[in-house]
Each structure stands twice: as C-alpha cells, then as structure tokens.
Amino acid sequence: MSTQESPDVSAARPGRRAWITRFALLLVAAISAVIVVRLVGRVDWDSVWSALTHLSWWHFILLVALVLARQILLAMPLRFFIRGVTFYRAALNDLGATLMSMIAPPPSDIALRVAPCLSPWGRGKDDRMSEPLLSIGTFSRAASLSVKTLRAYHAQGLLTPAAVDQETGFRRYAAGQLADAAVIRRLRDLEVPLADVATILAARDPEVTATTLARHAHQMRERAQRVEQIVQDLHAAPPETWTPPRLVELPATSAVAVTGVVRDSAYDAFLVAAYARLEEGCRDAGVEVTGPASALYDAEFLDDAEQEVTAYFPVRAQAAPAGTTLLQLPPVTAAVVTHAGDHETLPDTYGLLGAWVAHHGTPSGQPLREAYVVNISDGVPPSAYQTDIVWPLTPRKDTP
User: Fold this and answer.
1) Any idea what the CATH number is for the domain that residue 181 is in?
2) pTM
3) Out of 201, 255, 306, 363, which could bridge 327 as a Cys pair, Cβ 3.0 to 4.6 Å?
4) Is 253 helix (H, G, I), strand (E, B) or coil?
C-alpha cells in the first residue's frame, strides 16, 4: 500500500477572509481610480499648456533634474536606515505615499511610508543576510582567530563582517564565512603575506593558489610537505574526523583544577605538567576521579599569543588536594562533537561545531570545555585520540 502523502486540498483553497481582503482591495482601487479621474478632469489643461509654452528647453531639463534630486533626497533615509531597501524601491515607496496623500487626507500616506520597516516588502535579497549571524567573539572561537586579528582583517578588507551596527560598531559574521576564515588561518600558518592571501581568496582558483604558494617554496623548504597538504586541503572536502554534533544536558560537576596563562605553542607542555600535578594530588589525597582529563577555555579567542587555560579532573571530593583548586562546574546545555585523531586538525572541528551552534542556538558565553576521552596517557598513537568539544549554548525551540 502506498504511503505517499496526499496534497492538502483545503490549504490550497482561499478562505473567506482572503476573499474579503481581495474584495476590499478592489473596492479601494476602484474608489481611488474614480477620485484620480475626477481630479484630472478638473485640471485646466489649456492653462497648463499655455504655461509650458513660456518655458525654454533648458527649463525642462532643470525641472527634471530638480525632481530627480528631490526624489533621491527623499529616498535616501529609507535606503540608508532600512537594511535591504534599494534606491529604486525607496523612490517608488515615496511616490506611492505622495499619490496617496493626494486622494486621501494625511496620515493616509503613513502606511506606505512605514511599510519597509514592518515587512520585507521591496527589500533586496542578500544570501549572506539569510544566514545566522555570529558575534565577533563567538566567530573568533569558531574560527580560531582572535578578536584582535579579525578586526585587523576587517580593516584590511580581507575578511569583512556580514553586518556592522552603525551606532555601536559591533561586527557580526555569517556562519558561511567560517570557510574563508579557515583558509586564511592556514595560509597565515605558512606565513603567506596578506596581499597573497587576498589574491587567493578573490580568485578561488586552484591554479592561482598553487602559483602563489610556489613563490614562497624556496623560503620554506623544510615545510614543503606541509605546504602540499594544505594546498590539497583548500580544494578538497575535509576528512570526517568528527562525530555529528549533538545537544547534551550536562549535570553540575565538582573538579580539581590547575589554571595558567598559556602561549599558543605551550599548550601541550602546560597540560602535561598540570595533569601530572592533578594526578599526584588526587592520588596522595585519596580523591576519586570520576571522568577524563579536561580543560576550560575562554568563550572568545581574545589573543593569538596567550589565553587562560584551566586543566581539571572531574572528582568526588569536598576539598582540593595541595597545589590545586576546587571547582564547581554548573549544569549546562551544550553542543558536543567528538574529534577523532591528533590535535592538528582540531580547529577544523571547532569550525564545524561553531557553524552548528549558529544554526541551532545562541552561545551562552560560558567557557568551552575539552574532554580528552582518549589521550596519550592511554598509550595510544595520536591518530587514536578522542576529544569531546563542549560548547555551552541556549538552544532554539526547534532544535532536536
């Protein structure tokens, strides 16, 4: 038996309200037409023609120019203060309101003047505006580029925000711009000059990319293998080294922790030393560890050079061992993705999770968590590592 859903015929039929609305619009149009015809009939066209004969040819040009200038000046506020409204639509809107005021007393024209403010009537389509927008802080974390760097890229025209608030100056980025941010980050890892990065982004051509990178090959002979890998990554789908993002409710957790301000190149050394101290402290104090080694990171990637990192063990304890602090991690709703493999491609997984968060919720601003479920202490190679990335958020109602 076929289970194909039949079309909803009742939904296709206009209801009584729709017919009433159509009739009312036709009635208004008919009345307006009668009024306009009567007004036109009262015009003394002989006097109009007599007046026009007194004008020189340049008077007509001047009058047309003044009318156009007036129309542009009247349309400019709509164009600049209502996003997506074009000059053409703004001019039509003003003309329609003017005609309305001729056949009906003010404020009858107000409906047309405020129409673009209350609905997408007449607005231009911007595909990027239809995407969810991220604050610069959230985008910085998802792209693994600091806020300071993103501001510099905006000033240089390399990565322009999808929207900038005219009053506050706050930048907002589209989720689709995370791909460009990943390309920029990788090229800058190769010390490619910003001008060449801009050329590659503008061309979006594998040949242009290969030619540009080849100019720098003689300066980076020892990194030739990495250059080749990055060129391939720019034009191929990334390997699936993650699980699909999922929404998780995490309970409140007690933890013992070690916090430090860490430079980008010293993460591994800090974490190894911190976990050694935590392991020794828990063992000496007889504290029960209840989960994998984990870490807290700022919700915004503020500085390329260094950031605060908190390494911790989930525990069942009332006091912290010597040399550590006791944390109470609050319950959170979070998006979670599991990254499989070494940490070299971890920024790509952050980009995937950041895009998912943009479509399914609002970041809560709480620190991000990384749980090293399978790590070096398990005696496995880096290719077998498993890392849970936990991004706290407020989910949308329609998020499954």
Assistant:
1) 1.10.1660.10
2) 0.58
3) 255
4) strand
399: amino acid identity, one letter: T
Query: Per the domain annotation, does 64 fall within a domain?
Result: yes
Q: Which two tokens stand for residue 10?
A: 């009742």
Domain count, the chain: 3
Residue 82 and residue 84: Cα distance in Å, rounded?
6
For residue 393, list its beta bridge partners.
Answer: 363
Do 34 and 141 lie in one domain? The reply is no
Q: Cis (ω within 30 of 0) for the bond into 107?
A: yes
Q: Which domain holds residue 281?
A: 246-395
Q: How far is CA 42 from the centre of its chain?
A: 57
Residue 134 and residue 114 share a domain: no
First to last CA, the chain: 30
Scan for tokens 């307006």, then name that residue. 32
Is 222 found in the same domain as 291?
Answer: no
Mean pLDDT by 10 residues, the chain (400 residues): 38 55 78 76 78 80 83 70 65 69 57 52 48 89 93 93 87 90 87 87 82 73 65 59 87 96 83 94 94 94 80 94 94 95 88 91 94 92 93 85
